[in-house]
Amino acid sequence: MVSETKVNFLSKPKLNNPVFVEGLPGIGYIGRNAAGYLVDEIGAVKFAELFSPHFPPVVLLDPQKNGTIVGLKNEFYYYKAKSKDERDLIILIGDSQSMDPQGHYIIADVILDTIEMFGVKEMITIGGFGTGELTEGSSKVFGAAILPEKIKTFEKMGVQFKDTNIGQIIGASGLLISLGHQRGIQGVCLMGETSGLLLSDPKSTEAVLDVLTKYLNIKLDMSKIEKRVKEIEKMIEKIENLQTKLAGHTKEHDEPLGYIG
Amino acid sequence: MVSETKVNFLSKPKLNNPVFVEGLPGIGYIGRNAAGYLVDEIGAVKFAELFSPHFPPVVLLDPQKNGTIVGLKNEFYYYKAKSKDERDLIILIGDSQSMDPQGHYIIADVILDTIEMFGVKEMITIGGFGTGELTEGSSKVFGAAILPEKIKTFEKMGVQFKDTNIGQIIGASGLLISLGHQRGIQGVCLMGETSGLLLSDPKSTEAVLDVLTKYLNIKLDMSKIEKRVKEIEKMIEKIENLQTKLAGHTKEHDEPLGYIG
Amino acid sequence: MVSETKVNFLSKPKLNNPVFVEGLPGIGYIGRNAAGYLVDEIGAVKFAELFSPHFPPVVLLDPQKNGTIVGLKNEFYYYKAKSKDERDLIILIGDSQSMDPQGHYIIADVILDTIEMFGVKEMITIGGFGTGELTEGSSKVFGAAILPEKIKTFEKMGVQFKDTNIGQIIGASGLLISLGHQRGIQGVCLMGETSGLLLSDPKSTEAVLDVLTKYLNIKLDMSKIEKRVKEIEKMIEKIENLQTKLAGHTKEHDEPLGYIG
Amino acid sequence: MVSETKVNFLSKPKLNNPVFVEGLPGIGYIGRNAAGYLVDEIGAVKFAELFSPHFPPVVLLDPQKNGTIVGLKNEFYYYKAKSKDERDLIILIGDSQSMDPQGHYIIADVILDTIEMFGVKEMITIGGFGTGELTEGSSKVFGAAILPEKIKTFEKMGVQFKDTNIGQIIGASGLLISLGHQRGIQGVCLMGETSGLLLSDPKSTEAVLDVLTKYLNIKLDMSKIEKRVKEIEKMIEKIENLQTKLAGHTKEHDEPLGYIG
Hints:
The structure is a homotetramer.
Chain A: E1 6-9, E2 19-23, H1 30-42, E3 45-51, E4 58-61, E5 69-71, E6 74-79, E7 89-94, H2 101-116, E8 122-130, E9 141-145, H3 148-156, E10 168-170, H4 172-182, E11 186-194, H5 202-216, H6 225-247
Parallel strand pairs in A: 2-7, 2-8, 8-11
Antiparallel strand pairs in A: 1-3, 3-6, 4-5, 6-7, 9-11
């Protein structure tokens, strides 16, 4: 069997012009937490799992279920519109992005292949922008896109595109917009302002979800967001520790402490 | 000839529903030493060798046989049950794991391809968990698995799955469980508690072997374990030194000391 | 879809024995700025774009157009000779070179495949040579080539080939000459002397353009070069910051500051 | 065109049971200098060149011929026996080994593919072993092999196989022996004792050549070896500087000094 990035389907839902929402791990876990909360609250259904040899060569132990191994993966969920105001959705969440630069391109292409199968023409990717400062008060939502009309639409909703001081977007959230554009899938990247100094940021997550749900005409109960984000932090903390360990090591199996071969 | 991870068979034994046991190098060399001792004591027979361009680009010189070159490899052994209480076994030991993250996935897939050929449905992978502290007394054995029934079975045998403080498993021992599960091969990862500060740990190795042999209904003479583990330490020391050298170098052939081009 | 280095054609111009000019990012951005200025001033027309998974896994935000995403790419332009003194040209500019060593070879081969389609037999690659010192006065232009007659031709135009203290050329400018030679495409690499301490160097850029346009019999208005180079500096600054960040990180998505996932 | 490790043949000599001698760059440049001197003195003829995307992405400027670009390559030479005491030879010299671990395996396999075409059954690889100390007096020659009869043969010639303190051999010299053995090509690795602190070591080079030529029944005038080795040092110095620069950089094109894009 060749080891390559692949998608295993649990089902193949029939969707009507779905919007694709991406929330993978990144700074402040804004994307991961926003998309994860959306999945939970609207009761989206998992229909596919993406595995990749470009993820770190590790498995996680679920902190909720003692001793239970969880393989790294990205997960596709779908949601069928419950009224004509809503839209069908495909939502991607996951534990990891690529470990190597080239893998980012490979995984983005596999994601685009998958959503093209369901006729996706529009996408919203979610990330965070780290300011490096712990500030109080309202969290801004920054945006980036290729088509001017996309920028106008989200500017009207309060998303800031000008004077953002953002020079580049690293990883899936940016690549999906750029590579998707080449395939005729248009998108916007929403980025929650966050310090980047904490493991998660419920306020920034909520700010991004406000924009997202307004655009999608979805009503979301935000009362549980702080609790949920804190729960997820436990898992994040372990992954973060792992990434710190792996960062300086090409040979991760001679790790002196806490390593398991 | 394409350079890829490949398995050369010395023979193709006929095995009856064999259990797969993996013991590759990792922290404290628990897995490597436990599986190696098992192979020696039960007289398991080598039937295949795995070679990979993802191993470090080196050859070892056998410290027992002066000037004799040994290429890095993983080795498959089989054992035929001698009574109806025992089970047929396939045991994997080796000198090395992958040097690059992606190679871990590739090698794990080749290992799974190989054991699937012999009808393996169950596996036990062995590793160590480094506490960072040199402690006296009995060595705990920690466990991780995917199926709840696996966890129950090994909990009854004294393996600790709860409150282990283990966040992740790096390398083959974890990946084989996770990728094996996708193919319908169910397993458990047994991890010997060890300081992680020494090259090997006979006590922890013995503690893991106790669980393993009890589960497999195999009787093992443990009297030689300390001696054997110490013998293997000489080889390990050389590999460890090498890994330290290679760790900070993408270009390993401009190594200033002890390098041979 | 397989993720590989590929060229998307906007048109396929008919060209008569064109000269290929390469100017990708490097020290002092001499090549990028010289070729970019040439493209602008002679009104060369873009006909193809090269994308590669070996570029960094990022997208840029255009500092001129707030919030507008620009994917990393290399761009092929053509210019049709306006008199019989001139030559048809293919000019390559871009935002990035490969991030990994092997990718340099892969991208160079794709560039050569592309220009071979248009019958290119001659090429000029442009780079900078960093002296490490901020010096006043005229900028020298250094040269390197394989064929002695190439060296003679450009020596007559004041390019210095002897006593240059240049030991090697890293990246596309050198590889294209060497790999092109294997395919029967002959070339010269022109390198503007620059401190290497500043983001750009209008004087060195102009010195290289002087040689280039004299050889190509093209008249170029140099009055705007300082202004243009300064404009481009804004974009370069963002890329430079990014590269500094990415340099020490294999996992770029756990970047603490200014990262967007 | 796919970028892969490939061999371009200038001619296909008919050889009778040739011995393969490898001398690629390594510590003290013992292998490179010994094999290069042999090629020059016996008048061996180049018949093939090996190119690889696993070499560093650079070209060299020949210090003897100002401004002349030399692409990195490995070169195959042949020598036809001039008497029945001699043997036909294939000699491999070159500027570089692989930059990445996996590339070492790929290049070794391509080298073995090539020599198999000429019926090679026996090989001698040459390297250095760095002691870390500048010592006076005679240079020892260390050896490593797989077959006991090889060890015996070279032990009789004064090569030291026991108590060498050599734990491993990094790169081509070791891999060729190990991977060659799998194909039925038997070999020995000869390693000249050297400090590893200097760019080259004429005395150690001569000591290795003494063993090599005695085994091959070739008479070699050693009077020019010091002069030749010193000439080659100029080229080596540039490559060494380059490797030091490249060592800490995955993105070698943002090198601040002496970089040319």
